[in-house]
């Protein structure tokens, strides 16, 4: 699909006739809680190209919400999955020794941005990895409280959704949530609803933690960990200013608090480094991964300093499926492809082409685009109003470019790491056309 044929190629009105049938059947039977962005019904995909059920071709700048890191159906990943499936589909790694499980843990440990020895626990999803890490930090420290940030997204299971504070609707109706979770402001000031202007506030987080939270609500000696996304994902692709993460590390060290980096969206090469926290030169105590980890198969992980993981004993935490053989084989192949095909360099290089092109577009449409920010292939384009970002998402879809909103007024640009500069330029052309039709 991703060779020889020009993309995008949208031949039917969207949704096409077959997609309309699928939509009708889906709407009648699936949970209405699923927040469908637009009527895309994919049938098959390769590289950065998706074909829908009606034969329309799309350029994929979502990568299945930052999941299809090596591109769709990468031959090496497919071959590894097929070989593993023919050999052993499942045996629980909680109770038995699976070679592919320990190989995956070792391969992941080798990438960990932590200086000392680490241990790894594998899960089925990002949220499960977050919940596992939450249990671990409480168990390892004996401290009851944890802190996460406004704007954070950590998943939908009870622990993870309690840490999440990006949209009030994610909590509404579900309380009481998990006790002992406190929230602090991230490194961005609140956006001006009139102008859309945002600014960094270097001191906001630290003033709040030291002078408000630790003084009036909780003694820092009772805080087990701070959970942080090195770049906020669902909250709007927000990049903290240089030095912010280092200050957060120092604050944690001052109080014996663990630093947990949630790299579910920012990790596995998306920013041009294996882990986004590497750009800050900071080592976390626990690192959480999922999404891009297995190129689309369900796999999550938390990697912790060995002494933390060694604080809990047999049976303290487990999972029937977590780290099942086929997702593990996909993860091993994914790590190899990232290394062998130089995908970190590609993410940095094509990311720079995209960022420059998007900044040019922003300069041409100052009353529509208020900010372009990002690192590597994790780029957010922010609009003045939510109506504008919604219209851009829809306009791109109609022209065969798949992008997805995040935050309130931001469109994220997060293609597979195998994206080419030519494909990036095609996407920029489409975005330029779409922006030209967006009212100020
Ligand atoms: N953490 C982050 C940073 C995420 O972006 C997400 C998913 N968007 C999650 C956790 C939850 O992952 P999952 O959907 O696999 O549970």
Keywords:
alpha/beta; seven-stranded mixed beta sheet; pyridoxal phosphate; single chain; Aminotransferase class III-fold pyridoxal phosphate-dependent enzyme; Aspartate Aminotransferase, domain 1; 440 residues; Aspartate Aminotransferase, domain 2; 2 domains; Aminotrans_3_PPA_site; binds 4'-deoxy-4'-aminopyridoxal-5'-phosphate; four-stranded mixed beta sheet; 13 helices
SSE topology sketch:
Elements: H1 17-29, E1 42-46, E2 49-52, E3 57-60, H2 63-66, H3 75-87, H4 99-111, E4 118-123, H5 126-141, E5 145-149, H6 158-163, E6 181-184, H7 204-217, E7 223-228, H8 244-255, E8 258-262, E9 286-289, E10 300-305, H9 306-309, H10 325-340, H11 343-364, E11 369-375, E12 378-383, H12 386-398, E13 401-402, E14 404-406, E15 410-413, H13 421-436
Parallel strand pairs: 3-13, 5-6, 5-7, 7-8, 8-9
Antiparallel strand pairs: 1-2, 2-3, 4-10, 9-10, 11-12, 12-15, 14-15
The structure holds 4'-deoxy-4'-aminopyridoxal-5'-phosphate.
Quote the average pLDDT: 96
Largest sheet: 7 strands, mixed
Flag low-confidence runs: none
Q: What fraction strand?
A: 15-25%
End-to-end separation in angstroms reads 37 Å
What is the number of helices?
A: 13
Please tell me about this protein's structure.
It is a single chain. The chain is α/β, with parallel strands linked by helices and 440 residues long. It folds into two domains: 17-60 and 342-436, Alpha-Beta Complex (Aspartate Aminotransferase, domain 1); 76-340, Type I PLP-dependent aspartate aminotransferase-like (Major domain) (Aspartate Aminotransferase, domain 2, 3-Layer(aba) Sandwich). Helix content is 37%, strand content 16%. The protein is built from 13 helices and 15 strands. It has a seven-stranded mixed beta sheet, sandwiched between helices. Strands 1-2-3-13 form a four-stranded mixed beta sheet. A four-stranded antiparallel beta sheet has the order 11-12-15-14, with helices on one face. A hairpin with a 2-residue loop joins β1 (42-46) and β2 (49-52). The longest helix is centred in the C-terminal third of the chain and has 22 residues, at 343-364. The protein is globular, with a radius of gyration of 21 Å. The relative contact order is 0.16. It binds 4'-deoxy-4'-aminopyridoxal-5'-phosphate. 4'-deoxy-4'-aminopyridoxal-5'-phosphate binds at residues 65, 125-127, 130, 153-155, 229, 233-234, 262, 264-265, 290.
């Amino acid at each position: 699909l991703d060779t020889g044929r020009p993309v995008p190629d949208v031949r039917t009105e969207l949704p096409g006739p077959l997609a309309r049938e699928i939509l009708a059947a889906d709407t009648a039977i699936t949970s209405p809680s699923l927040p469908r962005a637009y009527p895309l019904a994919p049938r098959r995909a390769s590289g950065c190209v998706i074909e829908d059920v009606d034969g329309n071709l799309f350029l994929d700048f979502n990568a299945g919400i930052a999941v299809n890191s090596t591109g769709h159906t990468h031959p090496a990943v497919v071959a590894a999955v097929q070989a593993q499936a023919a050999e052993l589909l499942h045996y629980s790694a909680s109770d038995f020794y699976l070679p592919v499980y320990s190989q995956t843990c070792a391969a992941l440990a080798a990438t960990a941005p932590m200086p000392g020895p680490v241990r790894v626990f594998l899960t089925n999803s990002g949220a499960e990895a977050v919940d596992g890490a939450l249990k671990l930090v409480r168990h390892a420290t004996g401290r009851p409280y944890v802190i996460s940030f406004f704007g954070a997204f950590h998943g939908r299971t009870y622990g993870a959704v309690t840490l999440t504070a990006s949209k009030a609707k994610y909590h509404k109706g579900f309380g009481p949530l998990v006790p002992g979770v406190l929230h602090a402001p991230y490194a961005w000031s609140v956006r001006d609803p009139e102008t859309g202007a945002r600014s960094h506030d270097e001191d906001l987080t630290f003033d709040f933690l030291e002078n408000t939270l630790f003084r009036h609500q909780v003694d820092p000696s009772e805080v087990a960990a701070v959970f942080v996304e090195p770049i906020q994902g669902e909250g709007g692709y927000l990049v903290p200013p240089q030095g912010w993460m280092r200050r957060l590390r120092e604050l944690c060290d001052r109080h014996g608090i663990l630093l947990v980096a949630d790299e579910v969206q920012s990790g596995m090469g998306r920013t041009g480094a294996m882990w986004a926290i590497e750009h800050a030169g900071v080592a976390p105590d626990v690192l959480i991964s999922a999404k891009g980890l297995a190129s689309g198969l369900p796999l999550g992980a938390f990697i912790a300093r060995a002494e933390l993981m060694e604080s809990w004993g047999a049976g303290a935490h487990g999972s029937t499926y977590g780290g099942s053989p086929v997702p593990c084989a996909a993860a091993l192949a994914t790590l190899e492809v990232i290394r062998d095909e130089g995908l970190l360099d590609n993410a940095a290089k094509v990311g720079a082409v995209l960022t420059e092109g998007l900044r040019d577009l922003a300069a041409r449409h100052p009353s529509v685009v208020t900010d372009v920010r990002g690192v590597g292939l994790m780029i957010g384009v922010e609009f003045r109003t939510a109506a504008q970002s919604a219209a851009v998402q829809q306009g791109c879809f109609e022209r065969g470019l798949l992008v997805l909103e995040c935050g309130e007024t931001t469109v994220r640009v997060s293609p597979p790491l195998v994206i080419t500069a030519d494909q990036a330029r095609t996407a920029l052309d489409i975005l330029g056309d779409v922006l030209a039709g967006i009212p100020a």
